[in-house]
Structure prediction request, 691 residues.
Amino acid sequence: MTEELEAIDPQERFQEFFKTEKYRERISQMAVAGKTSLIVDFEDLLIFDQKLAEELRERPDDYLEHASNAAYAQLQTEDPEYSEKIRVKYAEKKADKEAVITVRIVRLFEAAPLRKLGSDHIGKLVMVEGIVVRSTPVRPMVMRAAFKCKRCGEIAYLDQAGQFLRAPFMCKNPDCATTKSSFDFVQEESTFIDSQELRVQERPEDLPPGQLPRVLHVKLVGGEIVDVARPGDHVSIVAMIRAVSSTLPGVGKLRTFMLHAETNSIEVLGKEPEIALPSPEDEEKILELAKDPWIHRKIISSIAPSIYGYDHIKEAIMYLLFGGVPKSLPDITVRGEMNALLVGDPGTAKSQLLLYVTRIAPRGLYTSGRGTTAAGLTAAVLREKGGGMSLEAGALVLADKGIACIDEIDKMRPEDRVAIHEAMEQHTVSVAKGGIVATLNARTAVLAAANPALGRYEPHRSIAENISLPVTILSRFDLIFVLRDVPNKEMDDKMSEHILEIHRKGLSPIEPPITSELLRKYVSYAKGIKPILTKEALQRLKDFYLAMRSASESEGSPVAITARQLESLVRIAEARARVALRKEVIAEDAEAAIGIMKRSLEEVGIDLSSYKFDIDILMTGKPKSVRDKLQTVLSTLIEMERETGMVEKRALLNELEAKNKVPISEGEHLIGQLLREGTIYEPREGFLKKT
Ligand SMILES: Nc1ncnc2c1ncn2[C@@H]1O[C@H](COP(=O)(O)OP(=O)(O)OP(=O)(O)O)[C@@H](O)[C@H]1O
Ligand SMILES: [Mg+2]
Ligand SMILES: [Zn+2]
Prediction:
């Protein structure tokens, strides 16, 4: 700090700033809203006095105090009555050295990348943007603690700072203070303020590929800033960076410190991934591309060009990237994001495809079924090290409004198996555990991969038998594809050539027509379009749906294609219109949607030509008669569970034989089937329970 600057009193400078019209207005509004904090846009301050703004950023502790005092002085002229009222209130409530008014700075010019925060930032005011991954409930923190002397009963007040509660050393009562005394904390006489802790993580879109995200510990103190953000929210935080070292009992403080952010202001940002408007040149390129009648082909061949074949899967990935239009009706909402599943033999490039999508999607997140954090795929309530609970968001919440690529989804945690149903259809994740009740948003498109349950895909078995996921989850995927590794002379020849060429040149032998950088911008741009179904497109979809329904009706099968598939068709058709930046979904889009849906249904074992089209057979591989029996087993189990909690397998088999005439051997078989599907499970050897 230079001497000349000291000459101009910063507090006076702030007061001049608060005399500008905008801030006079804001200050007089404080009384109306009953507030004790004042929001200051950093940009306003910068325009008013650049030097002052820079000092504030460099020495926030001093300058925020100057600003607070100035704001209070201005309030005294604007509204003497209110200023007196809060002063009196404050005198009894808050700790001494805290200012009456809190000045909260918002929108510093540029955000400091979370990844770059380090020792240079300690003590400075910075803005960080990120995603809240974890939050504690709001907890009262003591600001001024009252202590009662155990010997004489004298009460002493002590302002608190730091992590631990500090008690007085000696009693102030002159008749008592001869030797060290001990004290009781008096809660009723102490003053508290609301506090909360958050963990803020780099946003998926800011993450350099292949890097683990960084996290920052964020402290919030004050009723106005706690409980503003939930896990999954994107936030912009203006905070003072502090270095805190932990104390080891009996050893002392560690020499390495952790960075904490002491929050001055917090804002929840819009959840849309940065739709940074493309530069005029990029926009021109995008519009030019969209005019191409072969744009769909062009994009498909630009997706993962190093991976040979799989054009239908790349087409599905294209639809997934662009997505359909969500519908918000007064009573219900229908998701626009699509879900796709790749089931396949080992080494069929599933993981590679997923990783590629993560790179190209405007907000893509790659995770394995187990998740990379304790929260797994959905969310979890965790016990904090220092005691207390906190809520942590899982991958589907973090990828809200983006694409979550979940590899090995069949290996997800049991908790996620339950919660993922809600996440994939309603697009929310609800948690009620350990005193925390919350619903988080998960408007996420899912691209998942799984290995067949039996190691290799068995084409003679149903999809549900081939993958250890319950039917209820399978049915939430709009499209399912099977990747099989079968020797085929011609294919192997071409593919090996392709792969070897990559290794020889270190380059993809196929030059993608559109670079991934441009494709990413293209996808962002197209997301702004909300195409509407034309009459012709609607008619095509309806015809297909009705044909499928009636065909299966005449065959006597109970459920054919369901309303879920119809919604999927609409989403795919909308996505295809978006690819061409069209505002209308035309018949051609509907045809393409039907085409890819048929392909997906065929892959999972449906012969469309004969119209033997039974979603039950598709998913469970069982005709109605067997399903009815499975139902009997299940309802008997539920019945018995009501009495005993979990049910002994033997008892269930006996009951089935006695009441429903199901032979023991068949009963065993049916129970095995339900176990494989995940409808029931074995909490203990020989015992059963419904999932
Ligand atoms: N069609 C293909 N074109 C180019 N490379 C391929 C193709 N199929 C497999 N590969 C190569 O094989 C390797 C294995 O692929 P990857 O790890 O993605 O398989 P996976 O399907 O995820 O297997 P797993 O089920 O065992 O996880 C990768 O290096 C990939 O590039
Ligand atoms: Mg893999
Ligand atoms: Zn005493």
